[in-house]
Amino acid sequence: MRTALPFAIGLVALFMATAPATAQTGEQIYTQQCARCHGASGEGTKKAPSPLTGDRSVPQLAHVIDRTMPEDDPDKLDAAGSKKVAEFIFDKFYSPAAQARIKPPRVELSHLTIRQYRNAIADVIGSFRFAPKFDDKQQGLRGEYFNSRGFDGNKRLIQRNDGEVNFDFKVGAPDGTQPVKVEPPKKDDKKEPPKKDEPAKKDPPKKDEPAKKDPPKFDPHQFSIRWEGSVVAPETGLYDFVVRTDHALRLWVNDNKKPLIDAWVKSGTDTEFRGSVFLLAGRPYPVKLEFSKAKQGVDDSKKNPNPPPKPAFISLNWKRPRGTLEVIPARHLIPVKFPEVAVVESPFPPDDRSLGWERGTSISKEWESATTDGAIEAASYVLARLPELAGAQENAKDRDVKLKAFCLKFAERAFRRPLADDEKKLFIDRQFEGAGADLDLAVKRVLLFVLKSPRFLYPDAGNLPENYAVAGKLALTLWDAFPDNELLAAAAKGLLTSRAEVAKQAERMLADPRAKAKIREFLFIWLKLDQSPELAKDAKRFPGFDANIAADLRTSLELFLDDVVWGDGDFRKLLLADDLYLNGRLAKFYGVQMPADAGFTKVKFEADKRAGVVTHPYMLSVLAYHAETSPIHRGVFVARGLLGITIRPPKDAFTPLAADLHPKLTTRERVLLQTKPAACAGCHSVMNPLGFALENFDAVGRYRAKENDKPIDSVGSYDTRAGATAKFVGAKELAKFLASSPEVAGAFTERMFHHMVKQPVMAFGISKPDELEKTFSENGFNVRKLVVDIAVTAATPPKNKN
């Protein structure tokens, strides 16, 4: 986004020129007619306190000045004079380059953000555990099915991968076995000829011919199943895990010893069991679910030797941080069991987001206290698992040696580099010397000392060797985490000294689920959905639109974004694609023919009317009121979110005109009526025409041709930074304009940079925004290549940036 505050539309001056404006320079016009109100350097005065900074171009500035200045007589300055003063204002103190001259941007010393802190703890502790290679092509959990109420390996009949755990066995068994009626034994042992419809009995096998055995069958009365693997968290937050079953169960999530849910010994009639756990985005967590059906209550008396089995069902569900209860989809499960992840849950004060992205520049007593609490929590976690992590058993003779080695590696991973000799003495040797024979105390002192050190909390502190500095910045940019073993090994070998080598590592790291989670998070921030409120609609006007539909819509958008980014990666498809993901529930609501129980499938949906994210039903629903559409909200999103325009919120609380007070007006007509006053026109002349192009879609994103029996007017327009006026009719034409707009591409690249790097892009060079946009275009607007370019730019020292 171009820098800072919007252009002060109230550019008021006395315009007391001593010569015609056409004969004056732009500086003369400004000095004589504008500086009194806006200051000699555009810094503002009491009369016009807002500084002259913003994101409008020279043609846009000239248009505003010519149309609105001065307020008492807009015709006092002609178009030629308006252009001259606009050029002066832009070049002197308005443009990003001018602002950079006035206040040079710099890379600020920052501490770890909350997300980075939690990931760093997880990475440092996780480095002492072996993790298999992540393969997102495998989905589901590994299931083992036993023909017993326990898990007797000799009675394991089935091994397979199950995409989802959602089974209703009714009165049968996993292989379809149904109860069979058993006839009482006959008194007469004589052979009877087979009945008409019965096959003849086979002769016993010959001595040299082995008997053919039927495949083993499950006993419908009792069987057990164990599912194992990992669950991948798509976002950070508190997850509710819910198991629904009418029999015994145990569920472990990110703790291999203590079950999150334990209903192995059941009492009562409950069939739903819950447990909550905090998870970090983009990481696989070990999960194990055990289920057992037993012969409880079976009548074994002679009167009923073969009683009917009881029914049985089992489903593994979760509620994501901003979702509704659902069966955990296969795409979030993998059949490989990963090690536990150390997750710090100590609360932190929110990170500073005043510039539009998270950054660790605010230090407070609350933050200091939180880092202490986090260090204590992490140290307690390690001490509870010290034999596993350090490989040092309680009574081992070499326990002290192994614990010292563990502490040294812990410190080096936390500081992202090898320790110097004096640091080894300070952080390791002295802590063990001071603890005496209490080795656990020595380890605790080391951990707390390391985790409270600026070397850990401030990534750029400590004057890291160049290769290790590159590795640390690369990992934080792509993962919000610390370097892995492969990246540290490259640093140790001195391989991170060229852009090509750094880019090679960045491309490898993109495949990690942490990179995918961070990019997905950015896309939701770009679409202004990261803080979206609960989505609810008028039940009378939109029957059937409930929390489940809202959650499905968000999932649909998430799948669409992933499909584009991790498909061919073309950014323009985010704005132009005419397909989206629907399941059976969404298909029914939006009038698409699909089976009621269909899972999410990519389908062409109203291809002649829809295009990309701007017409996705979730976006259109979020950017609307409870019962009516909102061209203003939709226009603000397009202007701010996509075009990168800074628009100030209204000075006074804004309440839309109620539809029932103007029943004969369309929404467009009501908005034009309300925003007609001059005080509103400046911003709404930009927002309204953009939002009007989306008026063919109602408050839940369904297409409509009429409103109040009037044809929808979806004509829109936008005055570009180049000075041209783009006109479009409807969403498809709007999307085509946006996809081809350099303003949209430029805003996207800058926002992506800020999200990934958490530093101002111009701190890496005044021309860096234009360079990124140019490379983005040359690479076919490939999002993944843009991320690699950003990561290399952030990580590579200045001397290697060219």
Protein model, in words:
With 802 residues, the chain is an alpha+beta fold. It has 5 domains: 21-102, Cytochrome Bc1 Complex, Chain D, domain 2 (Orthogonal Bundle); 141-177 and 217-334, Jelly Rolls, CATH 2.60.120; 349-505, no CATH class; 513-525 and 744-800; 526-740, no CATH class. The strands form 5 sheets. Strands 1, 2, 4, 6, 7, 9 and 12 form a 7-stranded antiparallel sheet that branches. Strands 3, 5, 8, 10 and 11 form a 5-stranded antiparallel sheet that branches. It is flat.
Entry summary:
By secondary structure, this protein is an alpha+beta fold. The chain is 38% helix and 12% strand. The longest helix has 20 residues, at 365-384.
Helix-strand blueprint:
Layout: H1 26-33, H2 35-38, H3 58-68, H4 79-94, H5 96-102, H6 114-126, E1 141-146, E2 156-162, E3 166-170, E4 223-232, E5 237-245, E6 248-253, E7 261-263, E8 272-279, E9 284-293, E10 312-319, E11 326-327, E12 333-334, H7 365-384, H8 386-390, H9 399-415, H10 421-435, H11 439-451, H12 454-457, H13 466-479, H14 485-492, H15 499-509, H16 513-526, H17 547-565, H18 573-576, E13 579-582, H19 584-590, E14 601-604, H20 617-622, H21 631-642, H22 667-674, H23 678-692, E15 706-707, E16 710-711, E17 715-719, E18 725-729, H24 730-740, H25 742-757, H26 768-778, H27 783-795
Antiparallel strand pairs: 1-2, 1-4, 3-10, 4-9, 4-12, 5-8, 5-10, 6-7, 6-9, 10-11, 13-14, 15-16, 17-18
Helix pairs in contact: 1-4, 3-4, 4-5, 7-11, 9-10, 9-11, 10-11, 13-14, 13-27, 15-27, 16-25, 21-23, 25-26, 25-27
Which structural traits does this protein have?
single chain; 802 residues; alpha+beta; Cytochrome Bc1 Complex, Chain D, domain 2; Jelly Rolls; 5 domains; 7-stranded antiparallel β-sheet; 5-stranded antiparallel β-sheet; 38% helix; disordered N terminus
